Amino acid sequence: MKVTVELSGGLELLFDKKKTHTLEFADKDEIPLRDLILYMRDNLLKERAELFVVDNTVRPGILVLINDADWELYDGIEYIVKNGDTIIFISTLHGG
Q1: What per-residue string of b and e applies to 38-66 under the rule 16 or more CB within 10 Å gives b?
Q2: Rounded distance between C-alpha atoms, residue 4 and residue 23, angstroms
Q3: How far apart (Å, rounded) are the C-alpha atoms in residues 77 and 92?
Q4: Per-residue confidence at 94, pLDDT binned at 50, 70, 90?
Q5: How does pLDDT run across 23-42, given as a tens digit for each residue?
Q6: Is the pLDDT at 96 greater than 60, yes or no?
Q7: Beta-bridge partners for 24
Q8: How far apart (Å, rounded) are the C-alpha atoms in residues 14 and 30?
Q9: How many CB atoms sit inside 10 A of residue 95's CB?
Q10: Residues 65-83: pLDDT tens digits?
């Protein structure tokens, strides 16, 4: 299974300044979005996990799009990610 993850709004800075990640899971045909988020935290995140994940979901203030649609239209954190999906994380949090 291959999934594209895109990061913007400053989130890419936490992931080694890389905006797009192509993830492959050879042993899976699908993966719960919750597990994908935790995989990203444990394997891709370079710093400050608390700015991305809180209580095993994305931090409030981060918009999540599944194939360009709000994740709330797709069961949110319970969505089952499938081969070819694009998951976009956009931070609306700004420091000051």
Answers
A1: ebbeeebbeeeeebbbeeeebbeebebbb
A2: 6
A3: 18
A4: low
A5: 999 999 999 999 999 999 99
A6: no
A7: 2
A8: 25
A9: 4
A10: 999 999 999 999 999 999 9
35 closest CA partner among 26, 22, 21, 25:
25
Share of the chain above pLDDT 70, in %: 97
> Do 52 and 29 meet the contact criterion of CB atoms below 8 Å apart?
no
Q: Give the position of tokens 């400050």.
A: 48
Side chain identity, residue 47:
E
* Two tokens, residue 26: 């050879």
Instruction: Name the one residue in this structure whose structure tokens are 């994940």.
Output: 53
> Is 2-91 assigned to CATH 3.10.20.30?
yes
The domain spans of the chain are 2-91
